[in-house]
Amino acid sequence: xxxxxxxxxxxxxxxxxxxxxxxxxxxxxxxxxxxxxxxxxxxxxxxxxxxxxxxxxxxxxxxxxxxxxxxxxxxxxxxxxxxxxxxxxxxxxxxxxxxxxxxxxxxxxxxxxxxxxxxxxxxxxxxxxxxxxxxxxxxxxxxxxxxxxxxxxxxxxxxxxxxxxxxxxxxxxxxxxxxxxxxxxxxxxxxxxxxxxxxxxxxxxxxxxxxxxxxxxxxxxxxxxxxxxxxxxxxxxxxxxxxxxxxxxxxxxxxxxxxxxxxxxxxxxxxxxxxxxxxxxxxxxxxxxxxxxxxxxxxxxxxxxxxxxxxxxxxxxxxxxxxxxxxxxxxxxxxxxxxxxxxxxxxxxxxxxxxxxxxxxxxxxxxxxxxxxxxxxxxxxxxxxxxxxxxxxxxxxxxxxxxxxxxxxxxxxxxxxxxxxxxxxxxxxxxxxx
Length: 434
Known about the structure:
hydrolase activity; RecA_ATP-bd; ATP binding; 22% strand; alpha/beta; nine-stranded mixed beta sheet; four-stranded mixed beta sheet; ATP-dependent DNA damage sensor activity; 18 strands; Rossmann fold
């Protein structure tokens, strides 16, 4: 084209080279600190410091790491604020703690602290909902621990959006995370959950923090569990057990007693329809008692009721018992449940549940000092489960003396009489003969 279409001048077009497809070059900047050999990096800044609440330290991997950001999420009323107020009171014995509440007034938190015995001179309360105000409190107090209750009630004027929205939650979390890393300040955030149990807010919220803990519990039960979902400083499958009482929340180092109706001195009373198994909740073995009740005969439409167990798995086990073992259940009502509000879903409890049903049907009580482990297949075979050694060690510690386990479990000496069983029918015939 010899003529410019804009100014209509001839011969005014100049040839230019086309730039390459490579992106813009990034200019080199000054590093914040020189790179060091990995063996020369100090470990003091990454060592966990205990919070004083043993069950929480168990889930955290030893305690709170300086600069770590922990997100504790749970349903309303489950006890998140009560637990963190206990943590704040314990940590105040070692230094200043700032508890920022955006959902309650400082007076409400004070009343709860009086009830639970959490008053301390180095525990400071601030009813704030603005990130800038929180930074001002940090500059004035220089605390050793910051607790924010909750992250969904905080906002910042630097970004648009309503309080609790995606933009605000992300911006506040980014700001608090940057403060934690810059000052080496451990920060604990309280998070809300949606109606399906997932953490409210953007998914990036869980990626920004270092530790994500799920606080679980049934409102009809006093048992509360803190479950690790993500942990950059320790195992992500640990579980801590607590009991919610009028005077506060108390850690349970040995929660198996809550799940055994015949625990302790009353365990000698044998009752048909009960069996004891050991379930693994994360890394933690816990004894659980399953119960069954078989009532009636020749009922046209018998009822099946399940509490604390997987209803589909219970239906499968009932079918296996009737087809492979010869236990008539199609015309009788069957009720199955766990004790203490515990939820058991893993297949390792199949053998205990099946024998509890047989015990209830034939009115024959199982030995009170026996634990049962094993997954039941559709052919009636008993299959292996993981962690048999750890399960049996926990049972032996609590006084159980005999166990039925799947074949090839590779069980070393645990101070118990251990029998390997390969078929459900074989187990039923042996127990009936004994």
